[in-house]
Amino acid sequence: MIRASFRFYAELNDLLPYERRAVSFDLEFPPGQTVKHLVESCGVPHTEIDLILVNGVSVDFSHQLQQGDRVSIYPVFETLDITSIGNLRPDPLRGCAFVLDCHLGRLAAYLRLLGLDVLYRNDYSDDELAAISEKEKRICVTRDRGLLKRKQISHGCLIYSLAPREQTLEVIRRFQLEKQLNPFTRCVNCNGLLYAVDEETIADQLLPGTRSHYHDFARCTNCGKIYWQGSHYRRLIEFVESIVNR
After folding, report:
1. Given this model, what pLDDT does residue 212 score?
2. How many angstroms separate the Cα of 94 from the Cα of each of 136, 138, 239?
3. Any domain includes 105
4. What is the pTM of this model?
5. Whether residues 146 and 217 fall in one domain
6. CA 209, CA 54: separation in Å to the nearest integer?
């Protein structure tokens, strides 16, 4: 058997049993185990990890540990660029697009409201989520840490909060999306992009009261849903401002 010492840092400790939080602890295991398998056996999905050091040297998930190794595991860095030293993900994402599990419908709507590219369906299976994440290079967002342990998923986000507004902030902060927000440019129902549409071309689809009071409209390129700045618009503006301000 091989014995190695492990230490997890920052919020990764929240995923550990209490007695293993913020301390070094030893694990015994047979030869040939990868560091990915071992850290996930502790309860931490690989998608939550941004850097692994073995005896002070950055390694990838396939690295096999030796007797007496000291393993340090770090979460995603919010303010530091570790591209030059990190070895976990050789193919970084070019942009942030997401796929959300079936329990995060309100979060999907909020992220789309902010202009982010989000796939969501309330009947996605775990197999479908993993396949979409892999094929379309989308970040899998879920509250199921078991899903994020799948090898297919290279980029993921484990959601901690139960409140959709706090979940929205978690995603924005995790991936530093502040400059990518572009509110009111996507359909909250289907994720399609919105485009301005002339009032006359959709007049037959509007109620008389809507035609009388509103004159600026947008339509979804995908599902055709029509949007205008109705009585709910001020509430949506306040929501967007509250997210941006925080």
Report:
1. 65
2. 12, 10, 28
3. yes
4. 0.80
5. no
6. 67
Question: Is residue 71 within 8 Å of 35, Cβ to Cβ?
Answer: yes
> What is the tens place of the pLDDT at every residue in 85-97?
555 655 555 568 9
Cα separation, 195 vs 187, whole angstroms? 10
Question: Cβ(45)–Cβ(158) under 8 Å?
Answer: yes
The 10s digit of each residue's pLDDT in 135-155 is 999 999 999 999 999 989 988
Q: Is residue 80 part of a domain?
A: no
| φ, ψ (nearest 5 deg) of residue 217 | -135, 155
Confidence of residue 231 (pLDDT cuts 50, 70, 90): confident
Parallel, antiparallel or unpaired: strands 226-228 and 217-220? antiparallel
Average pLDDT over the chain, rounded to whole?
88
Give the count of beta carbons closer than 10 Å to the beta carbon of residue 41.
12
| Residue 185 located in a structural domain | no
* CATH code assigned at 64: 3.10.20.30
CATH of the domain at 127: 3.40.50
Q: Which domain does 28 fall in, by range?
A: 2-75
Give the C-alpha distances (Å, rounded to integers) separating 27 from 30, 33, 50, 52, 129.
Answer: 10, 12, 21, 16, 32
Q: What is the rounded average pLDDT of the residues 161-174? A: 94
Assigned domain for 87 exists: no
| Last residue in a domain, options 24, 45, 75 | 75
Query: Alpha-carbon distance 20 to 27, whole Å?
Result: 11
How many domains are contained in the chain?
A: 3
